[in-house]
Amino acid sequence: MARERQHSPRLSRRSLLGGAAAGAVGLTAVSAGTASAAASRTVDVAIVGGGIAGLTAARDLVAGGRTVAVLEARDRVGGRVVNLKLANGGFTEGGGEFIGPTQNRIKALADSLGVATFTTYNTGNNLLYKDGKRTPYDTSGLLGSVPPVDAAGLANAAIVQSELDSMAATVPVDTPWTAAKAAEWDKQTFESWLNANAIVPSAKFLLDLACTSIFSAQPRELSLLYVLYYIAAAGDESHAGTLERLTDTAGGAQESRFVGGSQQVPIKLAATLGDRVVLSAPVRSIARSGSAYVVTADGITVNATRVVVALPPPLAARISYDPLLPAARDQLTQRMPMGSIGKAIAVYDTPFWRADGLNGQAVSDSGVVRSTFDNSPPDASYGALMGFIEADEIRAYDAASEADVKTAVLADYANYFGDKAKSPTSFVLQRWDNEGFSRGGPVAYAPPGVLTEYGAALRQPAGGIHWAGTETSTFWTGYMDGAVRSGERVAKEVLAALG
Ligand SMILES: Cc1cc2nc3c(=O)[nH]c(=O)nc-3n(C[C@H](O)[C@H](O)[C@H](O)COP(=O)(O)OP(=O)(O)OC[C@H]3O[C@@H](n4cnc5c(N)ncnc54)[C@H](O)[C@@H]3O)c2cc1C
């Protein structure tokens, strides 16, 4: 095993509070390293990316007796998970925040770090806003969380949902491209399948909404096979994935939240790794040198026997590789775009909608925000409405001024929750498409033809370069849980390779 060496100048240690990006909550508990000019290290494994996947891989590699350096481009850890400061001294979550049943690996990680969960506020009625009309509805009824559209639409949507679940049950989560009907399903978009199956307009509305809410991509952009794989992945080794588990709050992926915000998980995980984590170190190149690799980031060079790249595929493609990656791997990364997503959080003195019997969860057929949640803290010391701005909606607003986005968002919130929603005490906007080291979210997805042609390259190491990140997970790909699973899998892979 290589001994970890640091050459002068020694990497500086500091609290990350001062270095955190504007608005991002600082990592007071962590004292990680920052890249300084001409630093270099020699370790067993260089890990590119300090998101949940990269940090989990580091944890397991260190536990396996290996030396690591985690190179993170941003001045904070957590990647697609971030706590953002509020003017009232609180914070809100700008990226991934919810966890739910069968997401066992993120739960185990949070438990191990002492990060507790609480139940997403879900008391009172949901709200459907359709054709300009507000319809509150009770999710404890027969329909569960399905918005109450017309009877024909509900019947059609139920058939479509059951059909999707049955098709997904035939898709192996580790090799979706080997499903018996993989070729047929991967040559069509989800849109073309929905057009043939969700024939009642209100059923198509429900399925379109589910699609944009899950992927932050329009049905026309996604391979049907990829959608089925994603549904199959919404479970664990003993529970088959279902569409309902993806969309539901109670019993589904939105069931719980983290006390202190989801970024507590990567912050506390990074703290256990100390100055093995190097911030503000975007990796520019990975070059083979004899039997090892030279990983060059801004301000630091790491020599390593193995490299783990824990980035979404399109961002991994922005690194230069020498020798070139196998063609199939590069073609894969050329074909998996990030979804388009923003989050808008309006803060109020109180969660006033609760007094109106509403739980803050609205779905809509119009507006810039078409899906909302009550994002108030567990003690409800203030109120927060969080809205997703997804796919075509955020694309239309990627270049807009924050003031214009705010005006559009608050108009939607007023339609859903009344005029009080027009006067928040503060407003936070996070546009992931404009984030340099994410360029969208929540996940890099597969359009038609990608999984069957290039899916096998998702996890296939390229020499001593191994791939992690939620996109490589078999269960809960696209989610924090998938990120943890991918980190655990890649660490096993690398430990086995190192012998
Ligand atoms: C708005 C939004 C809402 C979401 N909601 C949920 C949710 O409710 N529940 C859930 O489970 N999941 C949710 N997700 C998804 C979840 O956040 C991700 O699946 C997960 O965080 C991915 O972790 P990762 O480590 O695989 O990747 P990332 O978090 O993307 O980590 C990659 C890291 O690599 C860094 N990086 C990029 N390029 C370089 C480079 N060249 N050199 C060095 N470092 C680099 C990035 O800065 C980043 O820190 C959401 C995501 C978004 C954006």
Automatic annotation (TrEMBL):
<dbReference type="GO" id="GO:0016491">
    <property type="term" value="F:oxidoreductase activity"/>
</dbReference>
<feature type="binding site">
    <location>
        <begin position="72"/>
        <end position="73"/>
    </location>
    <ligand>
        <name>FAD</name>
    </ligand>
</feature>
<feature type="binding site">
    <location>
        <position position="471"/>
    </location>
    <ligand>
        <name>FAD</name>
    </ligand>
</feature>
<feature type="binding site">
    <location>
        <position position="283"/>
    </location>
    <ligand>
        <name>FAD</name>
    </ligand>
</feature>
<dbReference type="InterPro" id="IPR001613">
    <property type="entry name" value="Flavin_amine_oxidase"/>
</dbReference>
<dbReference type="InterPro" id="IPR006311">
    <property type="entry name" value="TAT_signal"/>
</dbReference>
<dbReference type="Pfam" id="PF01593">
    <property type="entry name" value="Amino_oxidase"/>
</dbReference>
<dbReference type="InterPro" id="IPR002937">
    <property type="entry name" value="Amino_oxidase"/>
</dbReference>
<feature type="domain" description="Amine oxidase">
    <location>
        <begin position="52"/>
        <end position="495"/>
    </location>
</feature>
<comment type="similarity">
    <text>Belongs to the flavin monoamine oxidase family.</text>
</comment>
<keyword id="KW-0560">Oxidoreductase</keyword>
<dbReference type="InterPro" id="IPR050703">
    <property type="entry name" value="Flavin_MAO"/>
</dbReference>
<protein>
    <submittedName>
        <fullName>Monoamine oxidase</fullName>
    </submittedName>
</protein>
<feature type="binding site">
    <location>
        <position position="388"/>
    </location>
    <ligand>
        <name>substrate</name>
    </ligand>
</feature>
<feature type="binding site">
    <location>
        <position position="239"/>
    </location>
    <ligand>
        <name>substrate</name>
    </ligand>
</feature>
<dbReference type="InterPro" id="IPR036188">
    <property type="entry name" value="FAD/NAD-bd_sf"/>
</dbReference>
